């Protein structure tokens, strides 16, 4: 401003406020930090696509083959079809006595060579509903005595029954799956029971850390659960779930498995193990089998389905066709993309390298 | 007595009033007016009256004798100067405004999602939930599916609120703070002579520096040094001080220049060093012990004349010596018997023009002093009416040299498609000369239009003629295109593509008309078609009005740069105000957003700091929106599988920490340190600045691309684990698809995918970037395992119920296969698209 509005003169004395310090000549302050500048060049991108393709396709094939080698057999025993033997139990209620039982015969075409895992599966069952998921008291399940007698409010409306605290409280525990499944091999009209192992089906941390029975002077669970009442739907209290003391109360494995809520409305949960006895005989040989069901668990009212699944497993778990197919597909697409990009690179690449920067 | 005068206004050059004093009327004009801050010198006494002193009304004080005569202790808001100073506005960047809009849209989007999910919930509760009540009864107080849906709406608003980037505002401020510090720390913007570093006085505008399209510059003190050096004089018709031809150009840039920064800087901005050509010997003043050793003069003829004792030359110097203050009117003989001693201000340009014309030197002659023998009456403002009585003794030419690097800076900025307008209070001749010397105006230009009409009609006519000439020229050049001309009342890109180079010079009094509401569009249209625009004789308010005009119609980012108090209003009005800390005090600096001491630093501020700042901010914003959408939208998809119950996919701690711990630092590091091209490149190729002006890197389109990418990621993030987990079991036979394992899988894939994505976005991996990116990943796993540990569970069983999930889930090959698959599927298309873009439509910076 050359025109002499010298009003600045009055304030001019403050000019010393301007910083006089010379900035430090450091790489940080001068934005000259050494840096790696990756650029998406043909030399990096194209090989990356090919390598991903070459890695994914074999993995996918491996998974696919593994998955196909897994034996799996599934029976829906909900009984909605009138022809089903379980149709009579369709409208069973929790407290029906005597329990409704039904038997379904089936045939395994192929033998199950290794250990067999027996699952029950439920469909349209919303174990992942927000109100359902939170309706539990982990502190009570961990054996905390004060929570035992005074469960968390999250358990409502299954917190107390007739002024007694419910153990275990909450909607999850209350809705515990309580069908009993038994498996028989039919050998010339004789029913040979197949031994089902009920321990070792829960996560180790759940069994040993997360779930604990209340502690006290006695080992008698009945005494320890004194003052509590059973969940509304249950036929018997939690300390009578099993006869073995290390599988009873809160550390009953069926209970623990049920309490690990599923992420999706269709799920399967491990029910029993069938161990291979010796190396000479398959665990389940091909042939006729019979499944005895004590049908206690009603699902028909909300269109739920119940299944029994027999499966062997591999290094990556049970049957999982999705993963294998997805890997093969993605690998192929990556490979294909690599080829397309390579073509584009060859077609247009030269043009760009010679392109000048207009100035 | 009583003063009747006009109401407070902002016209600096006019005043009208009447003084009633003892039944006499005295007219008051601008001649009787001293503006706030003026200093009277060589005046023994006078009577003063304060008017327009603020809200208190007229007439406050009159003090006699001696400078400072009048001083208003506090700035009155009604004084002419304060009226000229413009209003201080809170400045916000266009990105800020865009961000606010986008955040509002996101809010709308959030509500939409809430509504969709609430409707879903109502339907679900009606169809399924009502029957599922055997296992999950409705909570107390909920009796209808509709009410449940209503509640679920609010639940979803709460869990989906992470889509609204609240932390964005804080992060953006941190980024800008960082960018401002880089400006403060830049040693290439440090002036050793003044010992002043550049200073970012605001931390809110940094990315706007990368989008500037119009620069409004003051002249004196900004383009020039505002150091007046005696350069030439003319005594009795003879001109002294012709500079030898060999030294033209940079001949004067010697150590004598106190304001030059080149002495201190090892390499200046442009990398020019040294002097051009041979410099002839200056006149040797060593015979005079009183001579200023810094002073250089090239014409020995003057010294000769003095030595010979020519009376006129002696008189001339005597006058100069006695009257160093330029005063409009002589009060009394300055102590010398013969009544000599006035110097009139002066702009009379005849001689000055002569000097400019034949020398063509790189200098501006700003002041000419006229010496008169005898008394004279000076009427008017000194420019028009050269006095009538007296003898012209001679004239001096005072040179105000251009600052170092100014023409180069202007050239670079012009190449960067930044239009530079000079708004100066100086006379037209001076302004035009400076325009030539700093290469804004060149002889190659097709035409320089001068608008100096005094009436509305004249101005309109002149503008119209200018436009017609330009249009005629462009028609004759571009005859291939049959372009329909829209009437000029509509705003105007018609003239954008004018062929040839034009310049517009407009005078203050013409500008006053041109800025009136009915002509401003016309003026702007004409001015914008010209390559260079110079406005001279403009008042501070007009400077602001011109800036406002461009802001209003061009929707472009404007930057005003100036050093004096008269630039304050324009500095405040422009999007970005830059103050030069020069000779004129610090008012401009105080009003500015950025300040430094040399005009040439402007190119570094814009092309390097501004450009990077813009780039970083844009990349930052894109990534920020992306990561929030990728994170939050998973809940939306999950809603369809959990009965719209507002169940979260992730563990509550993950939700809390995702934005603050797992993903904040890498993107901040990118936003602070990223560089696409090194600083030298952005100076060498000013075209690199263009994406910022065109707002290409972050706009609504880019925003939608980011959002789309985020949603795409969220879809895969949910449905791939969904596909894998539906029937899968663990390798020990147990169920894989339990809620907690699912949560761990999705969260881990998400963190890995967004980390890979920031890795792709980061173009400049400093050690800090490495540390933050790898550190964030490490922190994620560390915190994950800590949260899922036994110890915390034993202390708070209800809060840390995920105990054991992370180790159990991450030990599963299927989980890692899922994570790997998700990562590749999310990232590969992005890489492919970027590669294609790089190949098919490369940007300049690539």
TrEMBL record, chain A:
<dbReference type="Pfam" id="PF03381">
    <property type="entry name" value="CDC50"/>
</dbReference>
<comment type="similarity">
    <text>Belongs to the CDC50/LEM3 family.</text>
</comment>
<feature type="transmembrane region" description="Helical">
    <location>
        <begin position="39"/>
        <end position="65"/>
    </location>
</feature>
<dbReference type="GO" id="GO:0005783">
    <property type="term" value="C:endoplasmic reticulum"/>
</dbReference>
<feature type="transmembrane region" description="Helical">
    <location>
        <begin position="322"/>
        <end position="344"/>
    </location>
</feature>
<keyword id="KW-1015">Disulfide bond</keyword>
<keyword id="KW-0472">Membrane</keyword>
<dbReference type="GO" id="GO:0005794">
    <property type="term" value="C:Golgi apparatus"/>
</dbReference>
<dbReference type="GO" id="GO:0016324">
    <property type="term" value="C:apical plasma membrane"/>
</dbReference>
<keyword id="KW-1003">Cell membrane</keyword>
<keyword id="KW-0445">Lipid transport</keyword>
<keyword id="KW-0812">Transmembrane</keyword>
<protein>
    <recommendedName>
        <fullName>Cell cycle control protein 50A</fullName>
    </recommendedName>
</protein>
<keyword id="KW-0968">Cytoplasmic vesicle</keyword>
<keyword id="KW-1133">Transmembrane helix</keyword>
<keyword id="KW-0333">Golgi apparatus</keyword>
<dbReference type="GO" id="GO:0045332">
    <property type="term" value="P:phospholipid translocation"/>
</dbReference>
<dbReference type="GO" id="GO:0030658">
    <property type="term" value="C:transport vesicle membrane"/>
</dbReference>
<feature type="region of interest" description="Disordered">
    <location>
        <begin position="1"/>
        <end position="23"/>
    </location>
</feature>
<keyword id="KW-0325">Glycoprotein</keyword>
<feature type="compositionally biased region" description="Gly residues">
    <location>
        <begin position="1"/>
        <end position="17"/>
    </location>
</feature>
<keyword id="KW-0813">Transport</keyword>
Automatic annotation (TrEMBL), chain B:
<feature type="binding site">
    <location>
        <position position="220"/>
    </location>
    <ligand>
        <name>ATP</name>
    </ligand>
</feature>
<dbReference type="InterPro" id="IPR018303">
    <property type="entry name" value="ATPase_P-typ_P_site"/>
</dbReference>
<feature type="transmembrane region" description="Helical">
    <location>
        <begin position="703"/>
        <end position="722"/>
    </location>
</feature>
<feature type="compositionally biased region" description="Basic and acidic residues">
    <location>
        <begin position="270"/>
        <end position="282"/>
    </location>
</feature>
<dbReference type="InterPro" id="IPR032630">
    <property type="entry name" value="P_typ_ATPase_c"/>
</dbReference>
<dbReference type="InterPro" id="IPR023298">
    <property type="entry name" value="ATPase_P-typ_TM_dom_sf"/>
</dbReference>
<feature type="binding site">
    <location>
        <position position="218"/>
    </location>
    <ligand>
        <name>Mg(2+)</name>
    </ligand>
</feature>
<keyword id="KW-0547">Nucleotide-binding</keyword>
<keyword id="KW-0479">Metal-binding</keyword>
<feature type="transmembrane region" description="Helical">
    <location>
        <begin position="620"/>
        <end position="641"/>
    </location>
</feature>
<feature type="transmembrane region" description="Helical">
    <location>
        <begin position="102"/>
        <end position="124"/>
    </location>
</feature>
<feature type="binding site">
    <location>
        <position position="219"/>
    </location>
    <ligand>
        <name>ATP</name>
    </ligand>
</feature>
<keyword id="KW-0460">Magnesium</keyword>
<keyword id="KW-1278">Translocase</keyword>
<dbReference type="InterPro" id="IPR001757">
    <property type="entry name" value="P_typ_ATPase"/>
</dbReference>
<feature type="transmembrane region" description="Helical">
    <location>
        <begin position="144"/>
        <end position="170"/>
    </location>
</feature>
<protein>
    <recommendedName>
        <fullName>Phospholipid-transporting ATPase</fullName>
        <ecNumber>7.6.2.1</ecNumber>
    </recommendedName>
</protein>
<feature type="transmembrane region" description="Helical">
    <location>
        <begin position="767"/>
        <end position="787"/>
    </location>
</feature>
<dbReference type="InterPro" id="IPR023214">
    <property type="entry name" value="HAD_sf"/>
</dbReference>
<feature type="transmembrane region" description="Helical">
    <location>
        <begin position="653"/>
        <end position="673"/>
    </location>
</feature>
<keyword id="KW-1133">Transmembrane helix</keyword>
<feature type="region of interest" description="Disordered">
    <location>
        <begin position="238"/>
        <end position="284"/>
    </location>
</feature>
């Amino acid at each position: 401003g050359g025109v002499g509005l010298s009003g600045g003169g009055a304030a001019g004395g403050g000019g010393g406020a301007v910083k006089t310090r010379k900035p430090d000549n450091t790489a940080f302050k001068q934005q000259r930090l050494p840096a790696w500048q990756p650029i998406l060049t043909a030399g990096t991108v194209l090989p990356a696509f090919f390598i991903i393709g070459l890695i994914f396709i074999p993995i996918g094939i491996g998974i696919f083959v593994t998955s196909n080698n897994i034996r799996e057999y599934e029976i829906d025993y909900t009984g909605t079809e009138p022809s089903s033997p379980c149709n009579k139990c369709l409208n069973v209620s929790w407290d029906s006595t005597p329990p409704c039982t039904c038997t379904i015969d089936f045939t395994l075409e192929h033998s199950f060579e290794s250990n067999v895992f027996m699952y029950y599966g439920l469909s349209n069952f919303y174990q992942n509903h927000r109100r359902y998921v939170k309706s539990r008291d982990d502190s009570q399940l961990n054996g905390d005595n004060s929570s035992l007698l005074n469960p968390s409010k999250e358990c409502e409306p299954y917190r107390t029954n007739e002024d007694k605290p419910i153990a275990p409280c909450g909607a999850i525990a209350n809705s515990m799956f309580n069908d009993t499944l038994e498996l028989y091999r039919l050998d010339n009209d004789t029913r040979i029971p197949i031994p089902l192992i009920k321990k070792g089906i829960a996560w180790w941390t759940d069994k040993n850390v997360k779930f604990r029975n209340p502690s006290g002077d006695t080992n008698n669970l009945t005494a320890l659960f004194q003052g509590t009442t059973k969940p509304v739907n249950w036929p018997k209290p939690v300390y009578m779930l099993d006869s073995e003391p290390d599988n009873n109360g809160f550390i009953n494995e069926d209970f623990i498995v049920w309490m690990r809520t599923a992420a999706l409305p269709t799920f399967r949960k491990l029910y029993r193990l069938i161990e291979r006895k010796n190396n000479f005989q398959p665990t389940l040989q091909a042939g006729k089998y019979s499944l005895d069901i004590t049908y206690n668990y009603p699902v028909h009212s909300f269109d739920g389905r119940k299944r029994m699944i027999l499966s062997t497993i591999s290094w990556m778990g049970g049957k999982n066709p999705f993963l294998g197919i997805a890997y093969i597909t993605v690998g192929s697409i990556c490979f294909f993309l690599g080829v397309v990009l390579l073509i584009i690179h060859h077609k247009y690449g030269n043009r760009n390298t010679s392109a000048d920067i207009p100035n | 007595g009583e003063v009747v005068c006009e109401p407070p206004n902002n016209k600096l050059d006019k005043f009208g009033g009447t003084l009633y004093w003892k039944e006499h009327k005295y007219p008051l004009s601008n001649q009787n007016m001293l503006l706030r801050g003026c200093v009277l010198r060589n005046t023994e006494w006078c009577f003063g009256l304060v008017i327009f002193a603020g809200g208190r009304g007229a007439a406050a004080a009159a003090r006699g004798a001696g400078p400072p005569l009048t001083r208003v202790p506090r700035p009155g808001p009604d004084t002419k100067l304060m009226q000229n100073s413009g209003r201080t506005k809170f400045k916000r960047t266009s990105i800020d405004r865009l961000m606010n809009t986008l955040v509002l849209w996101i809010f709308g989007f959030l509500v939409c999602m809430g509504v969709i999910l609430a409707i879903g919930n109502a339907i679900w509760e009606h169809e399924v939930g009502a029957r599922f009540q055997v296992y999950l009864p409705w909570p107390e107080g909920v009796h209808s599916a509709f009410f449940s849906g209503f509640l679920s709406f609010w639940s979803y608003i709460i869990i989906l609120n992470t889509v609204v980037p609240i932390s964005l505002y804080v992060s953006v401020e941190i980024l800008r703070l960082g960018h401002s510090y880089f400006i403060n720390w830049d040693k290439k913007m440090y002036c050793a002579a003044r010992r002043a570093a550049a200073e970012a006085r605001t931390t809110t505008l940094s990315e706007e520096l990368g989008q500037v399209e119009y620069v409004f510059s003051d002249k004196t003190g900004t383009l020039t040094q505002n150091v007046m050096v005696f350069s030439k004089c003319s005594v009795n018709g003879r001109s002294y001080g012709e500079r030898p031809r060999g030294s033209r150009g940079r001949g004067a840039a010697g150590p004598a220049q106190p304001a030059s920064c080149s002495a201190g800087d090892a390499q200046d901005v442009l990398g020019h060093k040294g002097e051009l050509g041979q410099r002839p010997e200056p006149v040797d003043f060593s015979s005079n012990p009183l001579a200023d050793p810094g002073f250089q003069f090239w014409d020995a003829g003057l010294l000769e004349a003095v030595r010979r004792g020519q009376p006129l030359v002696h008189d001339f110097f005597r006058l100069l010596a006695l009257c160093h203050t330029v005063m409009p009117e002589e009060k009394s003989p300055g102590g010398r018997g013969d009544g000599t001693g006035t110097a009139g201000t002066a702009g009379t340009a005849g001689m000055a023009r002569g000097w400019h014309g034949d020398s063509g030197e790189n200098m501006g002659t700003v002041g000419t002093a006229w010496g008169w023998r005898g008394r004279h009456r000076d009427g008017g403002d000194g420019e028009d009416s050269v006095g009538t009585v007296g003898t012209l003794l001679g004239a001096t030419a005072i040179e105000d040299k251009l600052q170092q690097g100014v023409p180069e800076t202007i050239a670079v900025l012009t190449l960067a498609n930044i239009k530079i307008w000079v708004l100066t209070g100086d006379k037209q001749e001076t302004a035009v000369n400076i325009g030539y010397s700093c290469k804004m105006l060149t002889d190659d230009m097709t035409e320089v239009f001068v608008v100096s009409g005094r009436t509305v009609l004249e101005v309109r006519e002149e503008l119209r003629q200018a436009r017609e000439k330009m249009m005629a020229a462009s028609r004759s050049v571009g005859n291939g295109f049959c372009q329909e001309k829209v009437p000029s009342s509509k705003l105007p890109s018609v003239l954008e593509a004018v062929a040839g180079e034009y310049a517009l010079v407009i005078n203050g009094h013409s500008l006053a008309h041109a800025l009136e509401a009915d002509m401003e569009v016309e003026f702007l249209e004409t001015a914008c078609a010209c390559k260079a625009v110079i406005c001279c004789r403009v008042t501070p308010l007009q400077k602001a009005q011109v800036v406002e005009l461009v802001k209003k119609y061009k929707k472009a980012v404007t930057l005003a740069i100036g050093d004096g108090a008269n630039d304050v209003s324009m500095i405040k009005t422009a999007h970005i105000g830059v103050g030069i800390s020069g000779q004129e005090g610090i008012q401009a600096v105080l009003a500015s957003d950025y300040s430094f001491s040399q005009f040439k630093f402007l190119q570094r501020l814009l092309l390097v700091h501004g450009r990077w700042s813009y780039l970083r901010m844009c990349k930052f914003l894109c990534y920020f929106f992306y990561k929030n959408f990728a994170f939050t939208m998973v809940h939306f998809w999950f809603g369809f599988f959990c009965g719209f119950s507002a169940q979260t996919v992730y563990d509550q701690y993950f939700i809390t920490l995702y934005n603050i711990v797992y993903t904040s630092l890498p993107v901040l590091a990118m936003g602070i340190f990223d560089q696409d091209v090194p600083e030298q490149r952005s100076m060498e190729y000013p075209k690199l600045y263009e994406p910022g002006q065109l707002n290409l890197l972050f706009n609504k389109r880019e925003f939608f691309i980011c959002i789309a990418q985020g949603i795409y990621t969220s879809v895969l993030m949910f449905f791939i684990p969904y596909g894998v987990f539906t029937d899968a079991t663990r390798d020990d036979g147990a169920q894989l698809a339990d809620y907690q394992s699912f949560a761990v899988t999705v969260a881990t894939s998400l963190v890995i995918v967004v980390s890979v994505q920031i890795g792709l976005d980061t173009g400049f991996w400093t050690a800090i970037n490495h540390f933050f990116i790898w550190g964030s990943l490490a922190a994620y796993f560390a915190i994950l395992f800590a949260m899922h540990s036994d110890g915390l569970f034993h202390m708070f069983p209800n809060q840390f119920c995920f105990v054991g999930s992370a180790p159990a889930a991450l030990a599963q090959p299927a989980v890692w296969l899922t994570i790997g698959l998700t990562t590749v599927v999310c990232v590969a298309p992005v890489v492919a698209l970027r590669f294609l873009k790089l190949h098919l439509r490369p940007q300049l910076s690539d």
